[in-house]
Design goal:
Low-confidence stretches: none
Mean pLDDT: 89
Shape: globular
Structural class: alpha+beta
Strand content: 15-25%
Strand order of the largest sheet: 1-2-3
Largest sheet: 3 strands, antiparallel
Number of helices: 5
Helix content: 40-55%
Length: 103
């Protein structure tokens, strides 16, 4: 994760994450699943097999709109990698959290 970019684009969400780190140990990006679960923004990255190939997809619950968000506008090459799709998912989750956090 590019933490400088996240801090700049989503300062309120980044601060919330910093507060979470003070309570829990942060070791890897995998811990972001726990962080966003606690924020009410569960992130799901899952594998799909279709006739035209295998790829990963993302679902994120947006507590503001009460709807599930999907990330579809990324190139197919990125969608082939769980790691790259997780990065896209967490960036979207930070964007949602930025709107959710009061300040």
């Amino acid at each position: 994760m590019n933490w400088k970019e996240i801090k700049k684009k989503y300062p309120k969400a980044y601060k919330s994450f910093g507060n979470w780190i003070n309570r829990y140990a942060y070791n890897t990006d995998r811990d972001l699943y726990d962080f966003f679960d606690e924020q009410g923004i569960p992130v799901s990255v899952y594998h799909i097999v279709r006739r035209y190939g295998k790829f990963f997809s993302v679902k994120i619950f947006n507590p503001i709109s009460k709807k599930t968000v999907r990330i579809l506008s990324v190139p197919f090459e990125i969608r082939k990698s769980r790691f790259k799709m997780e990065k896209q998912a967490f960036l979207k989750a930070f964007e949602i959290l930025e709107k959710k956090v009061k300040s």
